């Protein structure tokens, strides 16, 4: 009997990712819905100092996909802690993971350690090559970029890191969810729920996705309309940018090294 968690992942550094949206890249092809009688294997990466909501938000959606299993994957099956201290238990080692249909790559501060981790990048690229869909959340997009998956693609990520997408050959799009071929990227943190619902609709149909949305009662009514820098008070945006600066400076340096490795030239 399969566990309730199974994530299927596949990423391709050199393989074009077929597409879904009107704004997809020219060579993208529509993502095909997977027949109901075919199980969807979902593989989600977990790692130290990730941001748990990048995983747990989408998990609430994807674990409810009809005829699907979700598996959390890492280098070992020892518990890992997100950067706020929440414990997460991987289901299997990456080395033991088979092929996946849907690969989920979360983000968070720990993403920085994955950007030049050849074992992790190879795993993502290898699995992405055969996956039906690759779904990045928040700065997980930067990890996908380091694995070579964003070249010539449109993508989004957290607002404080969207400027780094160009270093991976991607065109940054200021949207909560961007679909380009079989690459689906969600912006920061809570946008992962929106992205997961989009993935659910693409893989299992709109009716299934709507049923999941109702099941989890996803009808957000935030008390403040300041969830984007364009809407938040300038003084709050400035304060948050200052708080992010040490990490964004580190991400910039890493992005430049990765761009050189990928042979991508960027004008600063």
Protein described:
This protein is an alpha/beta fold and 268 residues long. The protein has a single domain, classed as 3-Layer(aba) Sandwich (Rossmann fold), CATH 3.40.50. 32% of the residues lie in helices and 15% in strands. The chain has seven helices and eleven strands. The protein has helices at 52-62, 111-114, 118-128, 140-146, 191-204, 206-215, 234-262, and strands at 40-45, 68-74, 80-81, 87-88, 92-93, 102-105, 133-137, 154-155, 171-172, 177-180, 183-186. Strands 5-2-1-6-7-11-10 form a seven-stranded mixed β-sheet, with helices on both faces. Helix 1 (52-62) packs parallel to helix 5 and helix 5 packs antiparallel against helix 6. The longest helix has 29 residues, at 234-262. The radius of gyration is 17 Å and the shape is globular. Mean pLDDT is 90; it is low at 1-23.
Average of per-residue pLDDT values = 90
What is the strand arrangement across the widest sheet?
A: 5-2-1-6-7-11-10
Approximate strand percentage? 5-15%
Provide the structure class: alpha/beta
Task: Describe the structure concisely.
The protein contains seven helices and eleven strands. The chain has helices spanning 52-62, 111-114, 118-128, 140-146, 191-204, 206-215, 234-262; strands at 40-45, 68-74, 80-81, 87-88, 92-93, 102-105, 133-137, 154-155, 171-172, 177-180, 183-186. 51% of the residues are buried.
Which features would summarize this protein structure in a list?
11 strands, globular, seven-stranded mixed beta sheet, alpha/beta, single chain, 268 residues, Rossmann fold, 15% strand
Topology:
Elements: E1 40-45, H1 52-62, E2 68-74, E3 80-81, E4 87-88, E5 92-93, E6 102-105, H2 111-114, H3 118-128, E7 133-137, H4 140-146, E8 154-155, E9 171-172, E10 177-180, E11 183-186, H5 191-204, H6 206-215, H7 234-262
Parallel strand pairs: 1-2, 1-6, 2-5, 6-7, 7-11, 8-9
Antiparallel strand pairs: 3-4, 10-11
